[in-house]
Design brief:
It is found in: Cell membrane. One of its GO terms (molecular function) is symporter activity. The chain has two domains: about 5-475 and about 510-535, Sodium/glucose cotransporter, CATH 1.20.1730.10; about 545-575, no CATH class. It has a four-stranded mixed β-sheet. The protein is built from 25 helices and four strands. The protein has helices at about 5-30, 35-40, 50-60, 65-75, 85-105, 110-115, 120-155, 155-205, 210-220, 235-250, 255-260, 270-300, 305-310, 315-325, 330-370, 380-405, 410-435, 440-460, 480-490, 495-505, 510, 520-540, 565-575, 595-600, 600-610, and strands at about 575-580, 620-625, 635-640, 650.
Length: about 650
């Protein structure tokens, strides 16, 4: 049963899409006009805190999330909302442990870190996994809400896909990261307006929010204190806190889409502020979206729309509620559709920008270097980034149409987003925390983890998800579906009875584990197997961790590759040193190159202090082979101990 989209609804939707496109045009014509990769991909690292904070939230809360979270609370209860506590607990780890590592490297691609830490093979492996994940996800984020809206509002599916796909590609290509960030702010406001309109409307019809809460309690929807330690329990405090934290860190800590935004501000301090400010914004939208599910349950308590046959999926509950309660108000359906499409616009434009950055930094530049070609100038790279944005936008639209023919693969593709995130988080954690980790060990751990995660996530057969009781007693008899008639004529199993019934069918245990543990298990397998395999490969002399050192003698560590606490501990155990090349071309200390004994003489100490500053401590004369780990070339150097924060190189 579809509603109708009237003229005012189309006007509202057109205004929203026009404003989004105009923002892209504005940033194309102002500032540096997107002529450099620094401006196009990282907004010249000059964005204020709040736009980045809103953008971080908007990229995370897609249209699929808005539709799915409301349905979750309607059908399964409110235990899911506990995940917001995980956001609070995980934010410090992302802000003060992971983020400083990426910010110090000043890279447009987070996967450049993996090359510096492990090698190019690891960088390429992880980058390809991310690219595949985001390309599939883009098409689904565009297709799923368009399908739901077509079934309920009558808005043409083809029009929805093309309009949203073209507009987000347009402003992301023209305006670069600045346009993406500012449109995310505008679209965030629309998302809030959409959800708050639903809550206000339900509150008016119920005579307040208290009746909605009471109805949810009577219907068994209120559940906040499930402390089950059973891994097969779909949602509990442990799944939401531990699994939610792993999911949050895999997105806000090491995902290219989010880190690219965090690098668009002026300083590390402001970057951390953006992350902290995004947390309450995300939590408010998450909680209100959860409550909107209870509002929908209040309205359809005695006649479930799916059992009645009005919709094909409960993901369509949110738009159906808007049509039923606000469809008579001019432009309200258009405002709602704009809010849902804003979730798609923000997510897709973010994906387009991140994929363009990854393709330029991880594929084009290394390929040119490998083939011995001269690197292109920055303007050329900016041009290729824009071209790639157009290509990825076109691919997104094509995949959205293709998603309609994929059937069951649709849900599988959505699961990829979580299944890949955990192993990648484990890979970055391995590099940032474990000194002895090496490339072959990291690749072995990542491969094993991805194989296990895909097996666990897509293995069949899988048990049905137990649902809370749904009612169709007050539906008109002539509209009831056959399934609804069965529900009405027979007692509905309770949640616990359904769970026991599912377990008695003897499904394979791994397939019954809650999806919230996927990221956690993927993370642990990558990390633990990476540690074990790295230790084995080093013992067998199959690989080493030479890349973390600046010299062939494995003396000076690249501390910037580790999280601050680990870097501080490494500095404490091994004081940083300044490399003093023993040549007399720049400072006249005698006709002969000084020996180790000469280096500790008062005259040589005074010469060095005059050269590299009065704060330098006495030279500790040690002969070392200083080399580039990639080239293997070295020279005899003498090492001088200096301050705690950086390594200075002075030629004598």
């Amino acid at each position: 049963m579809a509603g109708s989209f009237d003229v005012w609804d189309y006007v509202v939707l057109a205004v929203v899409l026009t404003i989004s496109a105009a923002i892209g045009v504005y940033y194309r014509l102002t500032g540096g006009q997107q002529k450099t990769t620094a401006e196009y991909l990282l907004a010249d690292r000059s964005m204020p805190v709040m736009p980045v904070a809103f953008s971080l939230m908007a990229s995370f809360m897609s249209a699929v999330t808005l539709l799915g979270v409301s349905m979750e609370n309607y059908q399964y209860g409110t235990q899911f909302v506990v995940i917001n506590l995980a956001y609070v607990l995980a934010t410090p780890a992302a802000a003060y442990l992971i983020l400083p590592v990426f910010y110090r490297l000043k890279t447009a691609s987070v996967y450049e870190y993996l090359e510096a830490r492990f090698g190019f093979a690891t960088r390429l492996y992880a980058s390809l996994a991310f690219s595949l994940q985001m390309i599939l996800y883009m098409g689904i984020v565009l297709y799923a809400p368009a399908l739901a809206l077509e079934a309920v509002t009558g808005l043409n599916l083809v029009f929805s896909i093309i309009a949203v796909g073209v507009v987000c590609t347009f402003y992301a290509t023209l305006g670069g990261m600045k346009a993406v960030l500012i449109t995310d702010v505008f679209q965030s406001i629309l998302m809030f307006a959409c959800i708050f309109a639903i809550i206000i409307c339900a509150g008016i019809k119920a005579g307040g929010l208290a009746p909605i809460w009471e109805t949810a309690r009577e219907g068994g929807r209120l559940e906040f204190f499930n402390f089950s330690v059973d891994p097969t329990t779909r949602h509990s405090w442990f799944t939401q806190i531990i699994g939610g934290a792993a999911t949050y860190l895999s997105i806000y800590g090491v995902n290219q889409t989010q880190v690219q935004r965090l690098l668009a501000v002026r300083s590390l301090r402001e970057s951390a502020k953006s992350l902290w400010w995004s947390m309450p914004i995300l939590i408010v939208l998450s909680i209100t979206t959860c409550f909107s599910g209870l509002c929908i349950y209040f309205y359809y308590e005695n006649c479930d729309p799916l059992l009645e046959g009005r919709i094909n999926s409960r993901d369509q509950l949110l738009p159906l509620f808007v049509v039923d309660t606000m469809g008579h108000l001019p432009g309200m359906a258009g405002l709602f559709v704009s809010g849902i499409f804003s979730g798609s616009l923000s997510t897709i434009s973010s994906a387009i920008s991140s994929l363009a950055a990854v393709t330029v930094e991880d594929y084009i530049k290394p390929t040119l270097a490998w083939r011995g070609h001269q690197q292109l100038n920055d303007a050329k790279y900016a041009y290729y980034s824009k071209l790639l944005s157009v290509i990825y936008g076109t691919v997104c639209i094509g995949l959205a149409f293709l998603a309609g023919t994929l059937g069951g693969v649709l849900q599988a593709s959505l699961s990829i987003f979580g299944i890949i995130g955990g192993p990648l988080l484990g890979l970055f954690t391995l590099g940032m925390y474990i000194k002895w980790a090496n490339q072959k060990g990291a690749l072995a751990g990542l491969t094993l983890s991805l194989a296990f995660s895909f097996w666990m996530g897509f293995g069949q057969p899988r048990p049905p998800i137990p649902t809370l009781p749904l009612n169709a007693e007050n539906c008109p008899a002539h509209q009831l579906t056959h399934v609804a008639e069965i529900f009405v004529s027979q007692p509905i199993l309770s949640n616990m009875e359904q769970k026991v019934a599912n377990q008695e069918t003897h499904y394979f245990y791994l397939y019954r584990i809650s999806y919230m543990w996927y990221s956690v298990l993927g993370f642990l397998i990558t990390f633990l197997m990476g540690c074990i395999c790295s230790w084995i490969f080093e013992r067998l002399h199959w690989d080493n961790n030479d890349r973390i050192y600046t010299d062939c003698s494995r003396t000076i560590i690249k501390y910037e590759l580790f999280v601050p606490p680990v870097a501080k501990r490494l500095r404490h155990h091994q004081m940083p040193m300044v490399v003093v090349t023993a040549t007399s071309s720049e400072i006249n200390i005698g006709s002969a190159t000084p020996s180790v004994g000469d280096a500790e003489s008062p005259q040589f100490q005074k010469t060095i202090k005059n050269t590299i500053g009065p704060e330098t401590v006495p030279v500790k004369a040690v002969k070392k082979d200083f080399c580039d780990p990639d080239s293997g070339k070295g020279s005899m150097d003498m090492i001088s101990e200096v301050g705690q924060d950086e390594i200075a190189h002075t030629h004598l």
